[in-house]
Design goal:
The protein is mostly helical. It has one domain. It contains six helices and no strands. Helix 2 crosses helix 6.
Amino acid sequence: MSRVVNTNSPGKQRNQLMRTAAELLRRLSQKAELDEEAKDMAALLVFCLKEISDGIDSSAAVWEKRDYWIKAERLRQRWSWSGSAAARLEGVILNEAWEAIPGMMGGLLEYFADIKIVKFTRPPSVWQGAYQRLVDEME
């Protein structure tokens, strides 16, 4: 019997979400004005950060199962910014405090500095409707 390999691991999902978030930050920084597309991109950024934060616990649980408690705790500490950033950005979006978005983006850029974007790979269909979905979740 052969070993089962999970090709869709939390680490791989986290990398894909980080790439999506990095592309969103780049596209948002190129926007001259706030339009519906920018709102959708910001909302999708919230969803990406929430998923990253949620995936950390499942990754840490794997390390804890093997009694690597320190490694699990370091993983949680390394990624703790994602949950708080998602909550802050979500609050800004839901309160329609759009003037705070550029400052928040600047604070997030340091976490995405190692992701090099040569070509955009995420189509606009990825973020279309994300703002409405975020608003609907809060109702």
